[in-house]
Design a protein that fits this description.
GO molecular function, one term: 6-phosphogluconolactonase activity
Strand order of the largest sheet: 3-2-1-28
Distance between the termini: 28 Å
Keywords: Isomerase
Largest sheet: 4 strands, antiparallel
Organism: Pholiota conissans
Protein name: Isomerase YbhE
Pfam families: Lactonase
Order of helices and strands: EEEEEEEEEEEEEEEEEEEEEEEEEEEE
Length: about 425
């Protein structure tokens, strides 16, 4: 594999190609749980189709993708062994190109990775450890490890499971407040959210552990967190109990506020058959400077149980709107497999309140699907406008790949992100 492979994507998919015609294409990069490659796609809002631009030789299977503020640097976690992180360059031009920058070793397989302001360090977490890596300012590549964080006693690390299996009971993600001074790590095995303060050298210092609001024995499994732009509210999806919990953020602690179920009321007693997954806040725009909704997903525990996407209305301060405020529910086409992850982008001129939602699918039981799409685009145009709808999927049919094609088609999408 040539690590310096440059993917010249041609001149037909750049922003200027659509300047006076239909809405510009929206570019997407996706990982896969069953492929070592990354996949560059283009979504046409006007034609409502997803096209495949390029298969990117990579180091997967990839669990999670994160971008810097310009979305011209991408950082990925991987299930490959030995454990590693990779960095990628994305050129935003008439001729889109993606190049591999570098790959660095880590102690244990990481789940999530993030690059918070001022974009000097990459933070990854997974299983028994977390790591902080310096980012080379010119290339965007990952440099030396500056800190390792342990979630088990140091004398147990040598014998600890460092594969992806440890993600089921170890650390699972990391997010920062907008100031970049506070960081939060959900840990499935201890049912806690660990809080850290960051110093000027990028190092994290542990200051607090928030236990489950339902008690130490609730087996909640905190999995994924996000933080309101006001820096005052943290939201956490619980994998085992299928809640979104909201906490108030203080300088060195968290205080539980309230919870909302990821499941419709008639399934509230069936949480053991679902796996709480990911959550996102609607992006800030000039029309809506503060998030109006929080969107979260849960997967079916088996292929014959379809997952759910829920849209929760938020007050201006970030708290959940009290009943009888509406919660929008959308049953996903499949269980989602190990995915059902989301990324969100405003629809722009298409709708003031509207959102494009990327949804990834890793369900290998295609008989239960409405198609075989591994990456889907959903749309939501705000309350009372018809709910969530699926508008495009890729691949749209198992026969999309020509019999003589050597091009790899995605199998089991993991996480996809909007690049523009």
């Amino acid at each position: 594999m040539n690590l310096q492979t440059v993917l010249d994507l041609g001149n037909t998919h750049g922003p200027s190609a659509n300047a006076t015609g239909p809405a510009p294409l929206r570019h997407v990069l996706s990982g896969s749980f069953r492929s070592i490659s990354l996949f560059l796609l283009a979504f046409s809002p006007s034609e409502r189709t997803i096209s495949h631009l390029q298969t990117v030789p990579a180091y997967g299977p990839h669990q999670y993708l994160a971008a810097n503020q310009h979305k011209n640097r991408i950082y990925t976690t991987s299930w490959a062994l030995p454990p590693s992180l990779s960095s990628w360059n994305v050129e935003h031009s008439d001729s889109w190109r993606v190049t591999h920058i570098n790959t660095v070793p880590i102690t244990a397989t990481s789940s999530y990775i993030t690059v918070p302001p001022p974009y000097k360090y990459a933070y990854s977490m997974g299983g028994p450890t977390g790591e902080v890596h310096h980012i080379e300012p010119d290339t965007g590549g990952l440099e030396e490890k500056v800190q390792e964080i342990l979630f088990i006693p140091e004398d147990e690390l040598e014998k600890a499971d460092k594969t992806r299996k440890a993600l089921r009971y170890g650390s699972h993600g990391i997010e920062f407040t907008p100031s970049g001074q506070q960081a939060f790590v959900p840990v499935l095995g201890t049912h806690t959210i660990e809080m850290y303060l960051r110093d000027t050298n990028g190092h994290l210092k542990h200051v607090f552990a928030a236990t489950s609001p339902r008690g130490k024995d609730a087996n909640d499994g905190p999995r994924h967190v996000k933080i309101h732009p006001n820096g005052k509210i943290l939201y956490c999806v619980t994998e085992h109990s299928n809640y979104v919990d909201a906490y108030r953020i203080y300088p060195t602690s968290l205080e539980y506020i309230s919870s909302s179920s990821l499941l419709p009321p008639d399934l509230a007693d069936s949480s053991e058959t679902f796996r709480g997954d990911t959550l996102m806040l609607s992006p800030s725009t000039s029309a809506n400077p503060t998030p109006k909704v929080l969107i979260a997903t849960t997967r079916g525990s088996t292929s014959d149980i379809r997952g759910w996407l829920s849209i929760f209305p938020l007050d201006d301060d970030g708290s959940f709107k009290a009943p009888p405020a509406e919660i929008e529910r959308y049953q996903t086409p499949t269980s989602g497999g190990k995915a059902n992850a989301i990324d969100i982008s405003p629809k722009g001129s298409f709708s003031e309140d509207g959102l494009w939602i990327l949804l990834t699918d890793d369900d290998d039981n295609t008989a239960s699907a409405s198609g075989t799409g591994a990456v889907r685009v959903l749309e939501w145009d705000g309350w009372g406008n018809g709910g969530v709808k699926m508008v495009a999927e890729w691949p749209s049919n198992a026969d999309d790949k020509p019999a003589d094609s050597q091009e790899e088609i995605i199998q089991g999408a993991s996480h996809a992100i909007w690049l523009d």
